[in-house]
Amino acid sequence: MAGALGLHVITTQLPVAFISATKQTFRRASVIRCAANTPNKRYTIAVLPGDGVGKEVVPVAVDALRLAGSLEGLDLRFEELLIGGVALELVGVPLPEETLRKAKQSDAVLLGAVGWHVLIIVDLYLTDASLFITVGNLIFFELWDVSQLVDSTYLRKDTAEGVDIMIIRELTGGIYNAHPRGFTTNEQGDEVGFCTESYSASEVDHIARVAFDIAKQRRSKLCSVDKATILEGSMLWRKRVTAMALEYPEVEVSHLLIDTAAMDLVRYPRQFDTILTGVMFGDILSDLAAMIPGSVGLLPSAALGDSEPGIFEPVHGSAPKHYGKDTVNPLAALLSAAMLFRYGLKEENAAQRIEKAVSDVLDRGFRTRDIHTPGTTLVGCKRMGEEILRSLDARVSVSNGSLV
User: Fold this and answer.
1) Where are the bilayer-spanning segments (predicted)?
2) Any catalytic annotation for residue 51?
3) Is 190 part of the annotated catalytic residue set?
4) Which position among 287, 326, 360, 393 bears the catalytic label?
5) 172 CB burial (10 A radius; 0-12, 13-18, 19+)
6) What pLDDT, in 10s, does the model give residues 223-241?
C-alpha cells in the first residue's frame, strides 16, 4: 500500500498574483503535536501544485505530510514552485528555470498536476516529461490492497478483492522519447507522423535491476510485459530481463505480451505482484489498474532517478471540469506523499502513518464522489483531508507518541 505526505508550503520568490491566488488554497491545519522532543532530521520538499485539481489535492497532502513528519520528529521545509499552465500564464514558460533548479536541490518533489484547458496540451505534456527526465528516470505506480473498495470496483467484487500491485515503468526511453520522430510527407503526398520505438541494453538493465530488487522486497514475483512478438525493442527487453533473472533465483519471473497482460489485469489481477514494463505499456496498464478500485483518484506514483530527488505525483491529471468543486479524491495525492516518505526520504514509519490513516478513514466509511457507494458517507476533498488528519492525530499514544 502507498501513503501520503503532509507539508506546510512556504511561498518564496513568486509573483504577487500567484501568492494571492493560492493564499487560501494552502491553509494551515490547526495545532500539530510533535511526538518527538526535538526534530532530528531536516528535509526540503519542493511543492509544485501546478494546474487544476492539483491545487486542491496538494494542500491535503501537505497537511498530512507535515503532521506525520512532526509525529516522527522530522523537520520539513517546503518551498512552493511554479509549473504548468499557471507558470506559463505568470512567467511565460511552463517549466521555469528556477523551478527546475530548486526542485533538483530539494530532497523530494511533490507534484500536483500539469495541463490546463486553455493551453496547448502537447507543450504541457513535454513540460511534465522534461521534469521527469531531468530529475528522475523511472516511475512506480502502486495499487495497494483494494479490499476496502470492492463496492466501487468496475470488476466483480471477488475479482478485485485482495489486489496489491506495483507497476514499474521505464520513463526515459522507448517510443515516447526515442528518435527520429516528427512529420513528413510520403511519396503519395500524404502527411505522415512517425516516431521510433527503441531500447538499449543499458536502459533495460537499469530498470530491470530496480524491479528485481523491489520484487524481492515484496512477494518475489515479477512479470515483465512487452510485445516481443513484433517489436525489436521488446525482443531486446525480454532478452535482457531473462538474462538478469539468473542473478535473482529467488524471484519468480514471467513474461506477458501487453495485450495478454491487459486482459489478465481485469480477468485475474491477484496473479500480479510486481509488473515491469516500458514507457508506453506502463502508461496504459497504470490507468487500467486504477479501475480495479474504481477510480484513477486512488493511484499514486513515484518517479525516481539514480541521484536526483524523486518526484511524487497522483496520476489523475489536472481534471479541469472538476476544479473548484471540492469533489476530487485526494487519496492519490496522499498515497503519493506516503511514497515520498518511503522511497524519497527513506522514512518508513512516517509512510506507514499515512497509510494507516488512509485505511482508517476508508474503514470508517468516508468516500469521495468517485468511489461513493450506498451505505458510505459522501464527503468532499477538504473533508476527506480533515478526516485523514484526525486519524493521524488519533494514532498517537499520549504516553510515548508511538503508533497505537
Assistant:
1) none
2) no
3) no
4) 287
5) buried
6) 999 999 999 999 999 999 9
